[in-house]
Amino acid sequence: MARKNRDYWRKRSEQVQESLLNKSDIYAADLERQYKLAMTEIQKEIEVWYKRFAKNNCISYAEAKRLLNTNELKEFRWNVDDYIKYGQKNAVNPYWMEELENASAKVHITRLEALKLQVQQHVETLIGNQLDDTDNLIRNLYKETYYRNVFELQKGFNTGFTFAAFNENELDKVLSKPWTIDGIEFSKRIWGEYRPQLVETLHTQLTQTLIQGKAPDKAIQVIVSKFNTTRKKAANLVMTESAYFSSLSRNDCYRDLGIEEFENVATLDTKTSDTCQTMDGTHFPLSEYEVHVTAPPFHNYCRTTTCPYFNDEFTIGEKRAARSINDKTEYIPGNIKYREWKKRYVKESSKLDEGDLLDKVKSLFQNPTKSKVNEFKNELENVQNEDVKKLLSQSEERVNFAKSTKKSSYFNKDEKMVYLKDNADSSTVAHELFHEIDNTYQISESGMIINQIESDYNRLKNMALGYGKEIDEMIYSKYPNIFYTNDFNKTIVYKEYRGISDIIHGMTNGKIDLGYGHRQKGYWNGENALAKETWAQYGRMLYENNDDVLKVLQELFPETTSEINRILKEMIK
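Below the sequence we write its predicted structure tokens.
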């Protein structure tokens, strides 16, 4: 019997990976359709509401607050009761169900409240469906990846054996347990981030439109923009979840079947990242299988997969990949079809064949600091500003990284060391590296940007006077979409705007707190503290490359941004 060579295993693994990624791509496309449908329904709700109650395409806030008459209230209550029935049937978020029940019990309700509830129902339904659909996708991908890899291994060796099918209860434990470095479940990401952002945008825009007496076109436009942004984030999250659990499943398959080494297999074309090109063909002992570090995915939308690696001394007769429940093996033809193989060899069982999968999940993240740095390197490839990309790359080579035991991440200039907290993300790495760049080139020490910062601060104070308000009140009014209300009823900026919040916190010596800042007593009195943090926060925002954030940054701090951009270009030259 001829031995299968390395190219055979690489080719089969690529084909399996492509097939599985197609399933995720199909779902991502369906996800886009669901978002568009929800947005269409929301737009209809708003337009119908305006046509019904508006006069000459505008409506006053006072008019919006007028109580519904009896017939209108009756009709709306029917809608709410219908929403409640839908929620009970489809396991909609319990907090939303509570809101609906409270609305149903009200004697009076304003037109604006009615519209907000009607619109928010579409968001809750959308997110609920997304959670269910994504759970099904990942569940099926996990099992399919495992079975497909066993199938290819058995077919490659012409050796068939019976093994236990997945027990759904055990699989539930794996999929419901937080596996990412930040320890946040998929469902909590959706409910904790995307949902409040969508809801806050909906409510803010509707209220502002009514206060200003404008037609709904502008509100709809902003809502559409937020929906598109959230849709992209959700699709990215789905692809990331899929890639991780597919990789985990391959690892479990190799371990259960006695594979001792694995090899990385990249799809080599013009889209292949530098990281994946470097990792292609590398092989490691299975005991060193670590996502982000030795095994894929190495970055978002990573297409790299793995295959078994056998050294030149390996022979078919050793049957390394032929461990079964009952140690019984039989010859199978190389052209056997997957469905036929699955029907014959996958048998129902009360538990998984071997091992505790929860422990295996943990084993993938034994070195979170290294994973954070690798994530930073991968995402650095997508940074559009070439000056920033070069500076960060050079800085990363000058420092070492370690886990922070303090309350925050920080750069130690004496040790040339970046210390990272467990909850740090890749942008935090960029932030701390910009501190290193500042230290290396003596940016803040030379006083190069402090004059521009002070000038922008004075400009903000004058702008606020023009609004008849303080700086924070002016920013609330000018940029309502960058804020949300947290669980403690405090208005704060979304996380992506935390750099702007920190800069303003420093400009005002801690007096204005938009949600993020350095609150240690006396911090802003430190030598060059404001210049240092402005420089590092600006670097973080350039790394994140969020157009909306950069636009607000430019509008609030025009002289500072212009000067930093000039310095960046000069540094590269």
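Confidence is low (pLDDT under 50) at residues 67-71, 312-327, 349-366.
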